[in-house]
C-alpha cells in the first residue's frame, strides 16, 4: 500500500507543479497580453476590464495563484475570445475525442507490439527476427509528419475510406450501429498513423526485455521441466519482463498524446490538436493553457495507471511495500 | 575496435549529408525564393539518356514541360527539344556557407529551367527549397540541441556537485518537466510569443523555445555521471594531491560527461529537427518565403494540393537519411559508452 | 627543518596522534526517522615516524572511513587528529589542501584510482602540476626518478593505465603518491586486489621504501597475516571501535577479543588447520 500512496503523492506533485507552470504562463504574460487585447476591436472593453479584475493583475502572485487554482478546480478555466464563451466545455468535448484516439491507439499498439516482440525475441538472430528489426528501424526513421502525410495521400488516392473529420455529413441520421461503424471508419487513418509511429519503439523494447529474460536460469530450468514453449514465453518470460515494459507503457501514453497533436491536425480530427492550433493563431490564451493542463492530467493519469499495473504485476514491489 | 569502425562510418555518412545541405547554394540550381510565375505546380522532370528518335546521348538531358491541350494544370514533356544538362555552370548568385560570394552551380540548363522535384504554387524550385530549407531545419536542430545540452550540463553539474536542497529542488523540477507532454508545452510557450515576426527572429525564437523545454533529461543524466564520478578513486586521489573543486570538475568530472552528452546530442538533434518541422508545418515556426523542411510541406494541408500535386510530399522524405544517420550514430555511441563501467550503469536506469 | 625535527624527535613525538575520533553518518529520508550509523566510535592511536601501524578489521568495521578522515577527505564528527603536532581536523579548505599532500592514500583498486582517459605520464605528473612549483624539466626528472624507485621502466609513460597489469598500476599509484614526498602513506587495502605473487612484490617494494626513505605507513587490511608480516603494531577494529592493540606477536599468540580470534581463524596456516577448524 505504501507504494501506491507514494505514487499517488508523486502524481499529485506533478499535477500541482504543472498547475504552477500553467499559472505562471498566464500570470507573467497578462500585462502585455491584456494590452494587446484592448487593441482588438472584437473584444469589448468591458470584457477586458472584467478579466483584469477577475485575474487581479495587481495582487501578489501567491494570492493570484490561489484564486486561479480555485476557479480551475471549480471548472472555470478561463474565457475563450475566439469562441466567446467559457473554455472548459469547449475543451471537454475536444479532450474526449483526443482521448478516444489515444486510448484506441495505445491498445492497438500494445496488442500488436507484445506478440511481435515476443515472437522476435524467441527467434533472436534468425532471419525473421532480423527482417523485423529492419522493419522497425525503417519505421523508426520515418518522421511522424511524413508518415501521416503519406498515409493521407495513399488514402485520398485510393478513396476507399474517409480521410478527414470524425463523422460523415449524415451522421445524425444513422442508426446506432451504423454510427459506430462510421466512427470506426473515420478512426482507421489517424489510429493507423499513431500506431505506426509508436510501434517500432514498443516492439524493440519488448524484444529486448524478453530476450534479456530468456537467458535467465529459471527459464532454462523451466524448459528442462518440459513446459511447452508457448506457456514458457507468455506465462513465464513475459511477466518476468513486465517491469520495464509497464514503465514504457506510461511513457508510450506521453508519446501518443504528443503525437496525436500533430496527427489530429493533419487528419483534421476534432481533438485538442486543431483547437490548440487555432487558439494559438487567434491568440486565445486560456484555451492553450487549458489544453496543456488537460493533456498533463491525462499523462499523469496514464502513468498512475502504469504504476498500479506494476504493483499488481510485480510481487517484489508488493512484498516490499507491505513489509514496511 | 569494431564499434569504432561503425561509429566512423555513421559519422562520415552524416558528414556527407550535412555537407550537401551546408553547400546548398552549389548543389541547388536556383535561388530558393526565386519565383517562376508561369509554371506553378510543375511536376518533377526526368533525366533522359535516349531521345524520342531512339538516339543515345552521353550527356543526360531533360524535356521542358508544357501544358497539356485543354488542361490548366496537367503538363506533358515537350519531346521535340531535348535540353542537355550542363554541369558546373554559372547561375544565380549565392553566398557559399553564408559568406563566400559565388555563382557556380552543380548543374543547370541553358535555355530553360530545370525542376527535378517540381515546383510549388509560386513556381519556385522544390529541390532548391529543399536544400536551403535543410540549412534552416538542421541548424535549428543543432543549435536547439546545443542549448538543451548546455542547460542540462549546467543544471546537472550544479545538482550533482552541490547535492542537498539544490539537488532535490532541481531534480523535482526535472521530473516535472519530463512528465509534461512536451509538444503541448512547446505550443503553450509558443502561444505567448508574437506570431508575426521576421523569419530570422522567428528562427531564433523557436530554437530557444525548443532548446529550453528539453533540458530535464540531459540534466538528470549529467547529474548521475557527476555523482558517480565524484566518488571515483581517481577523483579522491586528486583531492589528496591538494586539488581544488574547480580543478576536479574541469579535469576529471567534466570529461566523464562527454560520452553521455554526445549520445544525447545524437538523440536530440533529429528530435529537434522534427520539432522545428512540426512547428513550421503548422505555421508557428519559420515563416515564408524562407524555406524550411516544415513549411515546405504546409501547403499539403490544403486538400487540393494533397490530391493533385504528389511531388510536394517528396521533401517529407528528405529527413529519412538524416534520421537514419543519427539513429545509427546514437546506437553506436551507446555501444561504445557501455564499454565504460560508469556509463553502462547510467544507461541501465 | 621539519625533517630534522622528526628525525631527532623520533621517539618523543608521534607523527600522527588520533584522539577519540568519532564519525557519525545520518541518512535522512523524506519520511520516517533519520537512520544513524556510527562508523567510528572514539578511536585513538598513535604512529611514530618510520613505523607501520596495521589496522585490521572485517569489511564494514570502519577502516575506510578512518582512512578518509585521516587523509582529510572527510571531516570527523568529533575528536582530534594531531599530525606533526598540529590539529588538522578544524583546518580551513586551503590549509587542508596543504596537509593532504603530506598524507597520501593508496587505494584498493589501482584501476579505479588512475583516470582511464589519461596516459600514465599525465597520471604521474598530476600531483606535481597541482603543486605549481616545478618547471617541465624538474617534473620530468622527478617522474623518472620515482618510476625507477618503484621499479617501472620509463617506456610505460606513453601508455594508458588500462594497458598496464595490476601490479604495474599499483606501482604507478605508489610512484604518483611518492612524488609529493609525503610523511605518511595510508594503504587502504592496497594489496587486496592483487594476485598473490604480485602482492608479495609490492609488499617488498613498500618495505624497501620504508627502509630507505624512512616512510611511515598506516596499513589497512582485512588480512591479519599480511598485517603481521608488515606492521610494528596491529590495531584490531570492530564496528567502529579499536578492540585490541599490540605488537603482532601478542595479537597472534594471545588474542584477547572474539573479533581477533575470528580474524585469526581466517588466516590460512600450514600444519595447524585442525585447530582453526575446531574453533569454528
Structure description:
- The complex is a heterotrimer of chains A (324), B (349) and C (280).
- Chain A is an all-alpha fold and 324 residues long.
- Chain A is 79% helix and 1% strand.
- With 349 residues, chain B is α+β, with helices and mostly antiparallel strands.
- In chain B, the strands form two sheets. A three-stranded antiparallel beta sheet of chain B has the order 1-2-3, with no helix packed on it. Chain B has a two-stranded antiparallel ribbon with strand order 4-5.
- Chain B is elongated.
- Chain C is an alpha/beta fold and 280 residues long.
- Chain C has a single domain, classed as P-loop containing nucleotide triphosphate hydrolases (Rossmann fold, 3-Layer(aba) Sandwich).
- In chain C, the strands form two sheets. Chain C has a six-stranded mixed beta sheet, sandwiched between helices. Chain C has a four-stranded antiparallel beta sheet with strand order 2-1-4-5, with helices on one face.
- The radius of gyration of chain C is 20 Å and the shape is globular.
- The interface between A and B is large, with 49 and 41 residues.
Amino acid at each position: 500500500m505504501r507504494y501506491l500512496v507514494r505514487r499517488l503523492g508523486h502524481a499529485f506533485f506533478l499535477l500541482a507543479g504543472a498547475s504552477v507552470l500553467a499559472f505562471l504562463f498566464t500570470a507573467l504574460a497578462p500585462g502585455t497580453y491584456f494590452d494587446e487585447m484592448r487593441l482588438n476591436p472584437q473584444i469589448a472593453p468591458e470584457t477586458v476590464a472584467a478579466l483584469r479584475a477577475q485575474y487581479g493583475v495587481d495582487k501578489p502572485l501567491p494570492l493570484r495563484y490561489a484564486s486561479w487554482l480555485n476557479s480551475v478546480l471549480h471548472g472555470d478555466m478561463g474565457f475563450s475570445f475566439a469562441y466567446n464563451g467559457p473554455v472548459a466545455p469547449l475543451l471537454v468535448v475536444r479532450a474526449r475525442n483526443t482521448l478516444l484516439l489515444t486510448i484506441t491507439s495505445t491498445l492497438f499498439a500494445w496488442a500488436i507490439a507484445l506478440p511481435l516482440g515476443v515472437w522476435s525475441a524467441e527467434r533472436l538472430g534468425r532471419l525473421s527476427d532480423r527482417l523485423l528489426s529492419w522493419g522497425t528501424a525503417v519505421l523508426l526513421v520515418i518522421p511522424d509528419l511524413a508518415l501521416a502525410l503519406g498515409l493521407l495521400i495513399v488514402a485520398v488516392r485510393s478513396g476507399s475510406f474517409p480521410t478527414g473529420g470524425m463523422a460523415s455529413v449524415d451522421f445524425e441520421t444513422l442508426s446506432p450501429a451504423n454510427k459506430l461503424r462510421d466512427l470506426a471508419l473515420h478512426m482507421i487513418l489517424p489510429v493507423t498513423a499513431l500506431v505506426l509511429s509508436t510501434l517500432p519503439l514498443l516492439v524493440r523494447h519488448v524484444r529486448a526485455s524478453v530476450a534479456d529474460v530468456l537467458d535467465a536460469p529459471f527459464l532454462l530450468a523451466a524448459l528442462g521441466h518440459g513446459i511447452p514453449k508457448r506457456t514458457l514465453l507468455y506465462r513465464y518470460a513475459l511477466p518476468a519482463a513486465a517491469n520495464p515494459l509497464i514503465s514504457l507503457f506510461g511513457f508510450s501514453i506521453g508519446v501518443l498524446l504528443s503525437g496525436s497533436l500533430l496527427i489530429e491536425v493533419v487528419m483534421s480530427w476534432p481533438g485538442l490538436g486543431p483547437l490548440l492550433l487555432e487558439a494559438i493563431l487567434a491568440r486565445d490564451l486560456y484555451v492553450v493553457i487549458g489544453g496543456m493542463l488537460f493533456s498533463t492530467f491525462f499523462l499523469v493519469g496514464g502513468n498512475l495507471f502504469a504504476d498500479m499495473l506494476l504493483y499488481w504485476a510485480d510481487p517484489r514491489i508488493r512484498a516490499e511495500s507491505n513489509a514496511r | 575496435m569494431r564499434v569504432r569502425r561503425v561509429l566512423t562510418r555513421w559519422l562520415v555518412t552524416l558528414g556527407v549529408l550535412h555537407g550537401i545541405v551546408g553547400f546548398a547554394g552549389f548543389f541547388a540550381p536556383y535561388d530558393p525564393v526565386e519565383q517562376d510565375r508561369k509554371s506553378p505546380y510543375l511536376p518533377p522532370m526526368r533525366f533522359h539518356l535516349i531521345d524520342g528518335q531512339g538516339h543515345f546521348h552521353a550527356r543526360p538531358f531533360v524535356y521542358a514541360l508544357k501544358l497539356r491541350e485543354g488542361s490548366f494544370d496537367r503538363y506533358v514533356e515537350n519531346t521535340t527539344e531535348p535540353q542537355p544538362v550542363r554541369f558546373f555552370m554559372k547561375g544565380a548568385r549565392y553566398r557559399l556557407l553564408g559568406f563566400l560570394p559565388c555563382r557556380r552551380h552543380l548543374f543547370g540548363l541553358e535555355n530553360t529551367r530545370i525542376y527535378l522535384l517540381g515546383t510549388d504554387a509560386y513556381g519556385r524550385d522544390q529541390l532548391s527549397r529543399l536544400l536551403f530549407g535543410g540549412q534552416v531545419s538542421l541548424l535549428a536542430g543543432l543549435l536547439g540541441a546545443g542549448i538543451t545540452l548546455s542547460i542540462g550540463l549546467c543544471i546537472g553539474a550544479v545538482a550533482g556537485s552541490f547535492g542537498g536542497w539544490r539537488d532535490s529542488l532541481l531534480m523535482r523540477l526535472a521530473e516535472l518537466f519530463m512528465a509534461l507532454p512536451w509538444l503541448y508545452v512547446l505550443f503553450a510557450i509558443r502561444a505567448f510569443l508574437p506570431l508575426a515576426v521576421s523569419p530570422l527572429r522567428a528562427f531564433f525564437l523557436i530554437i530557444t523555445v525548443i532548446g529550453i523545454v528539453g533540458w530535464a533529461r540531459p540534466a538528470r543524466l549529467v547529474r548521475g555521471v557527476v555523482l558517480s564520478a565524484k566518488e571515483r578513486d581517481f577523483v579522491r586521489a586528486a583531492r589528496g594531491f591538494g586539488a581544488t573543486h574547480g580543478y576536479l570538475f574541469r579535469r576529471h568530472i567534466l570529461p566523464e560527461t562527454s560520452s553521455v552528452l554526445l549520445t544525447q546530442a545524437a538523440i536530440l538533434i533529429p528530435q529537434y529537427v522534427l520539432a522545428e518541422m512540426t512547428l513550421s508545418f503548422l505555421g508557428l515556426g519559420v515563416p515564408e518565403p524562407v524555406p524550411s523542411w516544415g513549411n515546405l510541406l504546409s501547403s499539403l494541408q490544403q486538400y487540393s494540393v494533397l490530391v493533385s500535386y504528389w511531388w510536394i510530399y517528396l521533401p517529407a522524405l528528405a529527413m529519412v537519411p538524416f534520421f537514419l544517420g543519427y539513429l545509427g550514430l546514437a546506437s553506436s555511441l551507446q555501444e561504445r559508452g557501455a564499454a565504460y563501467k560508469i556509463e553502462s550503469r547510467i544507461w541501465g536506469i | 627543518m621539519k625533517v630534522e625535527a622528526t628525525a631527532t624527535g623520533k621517539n618523543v613525538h608521534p607523527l600522527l596522534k588520533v584522539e577519540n575520533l568519532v564519525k557519525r553518518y545520518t541518512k535522512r529520508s523524506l519520511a520516517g526517522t533519520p537512520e544513524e550509523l556510527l562508523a567510528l566510535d572514539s578511536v585513538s592511536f598513535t604512529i611514530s615516524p618510520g613505523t607501520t601501524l596495521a589496522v585490521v578489521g572485517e569489511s564494514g568495521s570502519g577502516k575506510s572511513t578512518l582512512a578518509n578522515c585521516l587523509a582529510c577527505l572527510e571531516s570527523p564528527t568529533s575528536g582530534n587528529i594531531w599530525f606533526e603536532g598540529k590539529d588538522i581536523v578544524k583546518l580551513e579548505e586551503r590549509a587542508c589542501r596543504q596537509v593532504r599532500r603530506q598524507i597520501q592514500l593508496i587505494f584498493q583498486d589501482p584501476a579505479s584510482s588512475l583516470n582511464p582517459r589519461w596516459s600514465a605520464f599525465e597520471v604521474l605528473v598530476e600531483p606535481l602540476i597541482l603543486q605549481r612549483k616545478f618547471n617541465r624539466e624538474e617534473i620530468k626528472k622527478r617522474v623518472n626518478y620515482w618510476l625507477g624507485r618503484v621499479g617501472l621502466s620509463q617506456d610505460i609513460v606513453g601508455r594508458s593505465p588500462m594497458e598496464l597489469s595490476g601490479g604495474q598500476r599499483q606501482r604507478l599509484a605508489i610512484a604518483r603518491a611518492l612524488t609529493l614526498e609525503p610523511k605518511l602513506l595510508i594503504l587502504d587495502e592496497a594489496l587486496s586486489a592483487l594476485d598473490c605473487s604480485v602482492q608479495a612484490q609490492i609488499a617488498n617494494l613498500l618495505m624497501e621504501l620504508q627502509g630507505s626513505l624512512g616512510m611511515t605507513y598506516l596499513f589497512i587490511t582485512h588480512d591479519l597475516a599480511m598485517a603481521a608480516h608488515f606492521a610494528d603494531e596491529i590495531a584490531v577494529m570492530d564496528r567502529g571501535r579499536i578492540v585490541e592493540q599490540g605488537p603482532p606477536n601478542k595479537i597472534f599468540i594471545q588474542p584477547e577479543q572474539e573479533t581477533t580470534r575470528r580474524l585469526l581463524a581466517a588466516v590460512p596456516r600450514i600444519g595447524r588447520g585442525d585447530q582453526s577448524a575446531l574453533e569454528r
